[in-house]
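lol forgot to send this yesterday, sorry. C-alpha coordinates for the thing we talked abt
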Protein backbone atom coordinates (compact mmCIF):
# COMPACT_ATOMS: atom_id res chain seq x y z
CA UNK A 1 0.00 0.00 0.00
CA UNK A 2 2.83 2.43 0.77
CA UNK A 3 4.32 2.01 -2.70
CA UNK A 4 1.55 4.16 -4.20
CA UNK A 5 3.02 7.27 -2.53
CA UNK A 6 5.81 9.11 -4.34
CA UNK A 7 6.16 12.28 -2.34
CA UNK A 8 6.98 12.24 1.39
CA UNK A 9 4.70 15.25 1.89
CA UNK A 10 1.70 13.09 0.91
CA UNK A 11 2.30 10.61 3.72
CA UNK A 12 3.67 13.06 6.30
CA UNK A 13 0.22 13.81 7.84
CA UNK A 14 -0.23 10.08 8.47
CA UNK A 15 3.19 9.81 10.09
CA UNK A 16 2.70 12.88 12.29
CA UNK A 17 -0.87 12.01 13.33
CA UNK A 18 -1.55 10.78 16.84
CA UNK A 19 -4.50 8.91 18.23
CA UNK A 20 -6.63 9.92 21.22
CA UNK A 21 -3.99 8.51 23.58
CA UNK A 22 -1.26 10.66 22.04
CA UNK A 23 0.58 7.76 20.43
CA UNK A 24 1.97 8.01 16.91
CA UNK A 25 2.70 5.49 14.17
CA UNK A 26 6.19 4.71 15.47
CA UNK A 27 4.74 3.65 18.82
CA UNK A 28 2.45 1.14 17.10
CA UNK A 29 5.25 -0.11 14.84
CA UNK A 30 7.22 -0.89 17.97
CA UNK A 31 4.25 -2.24 19.92
CA UNK A 32 3.22 -4.74 17.25
CA UNK A 33 6.76 -5.46 15.98
CA UNK A 34 6.06 -4.27 12.43
CA UNK A 35 9.54 -3.02 11.57
CA UNK A 36 9.38 -4.50 8.06
CA UNK A 37 7.21 -1.50 7.06
CA UNK A 38 10.26 0.70 7.59
CA UNK A 39 12.03 -1.05 4.68
CA UNK A 40 9.82 0.78 2.19
CA UNK A 41 11.38 3.47 -0.05
CA UNK A 42 8.82 6.14 0.84
CA UNK A 43 9.26 5.58 4.58
CA UNK A 44 13.01 6.08 4.11
CA UNK A 45 12.30 9.40 2.44
CA UNK A 46 9.86 10.41 5.20
CA UNK A 47 12.34 9.55 7.94
CA UNK A 48 15.08 11.43 6.10
CA UNK A 49 12.84 14.48 5.76
CA UNK A 50 11.87 14.35 9.45
CA UNK A 51 15.52 13.91 10.44
CA UNK A 52 16.67 16.94 8.43
CA UNK A 53 13.85 19.12 9.74
CA UNK A 54 12.18 22.15 8.24
CA UNK A 55 15.13 24.51 8.52
CA UNK A 56 18.72 24.17 7.39
CA UNK A 57 20.80 24.93 10.47
CA UNK A 58 24.10 23.77 8.96
CA UNK A 59 24.95 27.09 7.38
CA UNK A 60 26.50 30.38 8.33
CA UNK A 61 25.38 33.93 7.51
CA UNK A 62 28.21 34.13 4.99
CA UNK A 63 26.73 31.32 2.89
CA UNK A 64 24.03 33.67 1.57
CA UNK A 65 26.41 36.54 0.88
CA UNK A 66 27.14 37.17 -2.80
CA UNK A 67 30.41 38.94 -2.09
CA UNK A 68 31.60 36.05 0.08
CA UNK A 69 30.67 33.59 -2.68
CA UNK A 70 32.63 35.64 -5.22
CA UNK A 71 35.68 35.66 -2.96
CA UNK A 72 35.48 31.89 -2.52
CA UNK A 73 35.10 31.01 -6.21
CA UNK A 74 34.46 33.83 -8.64
CA UNK A 75 33.82 31.54 -11.62
CA UNK A 76 31.24 29.33 -9.92
CA UNK A 77 28.96 32.28 -9.09
CA UNK A 78 28.47 33.31 -12.67
CA UNK A 79 28.17 29.80 -14.07
CA UNK A 80 25.10 28.90 -11.99
CA UNK A 81 21.83 30.66 -11.25
CA UNK A 82 21.54 29.71 -7.58
CA UNK A 83 22.35 33.22 -6.35
CA UNK A 84 20.25 35.20 -8.82
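and heres what i got for the seq, position by position
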Amino acid sequence: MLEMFNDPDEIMPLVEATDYKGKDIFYYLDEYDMYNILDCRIIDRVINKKWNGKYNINSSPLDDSISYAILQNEYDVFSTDHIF
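The two ends are 42 Å apart (CA to CA). anyway ping me if u want another try
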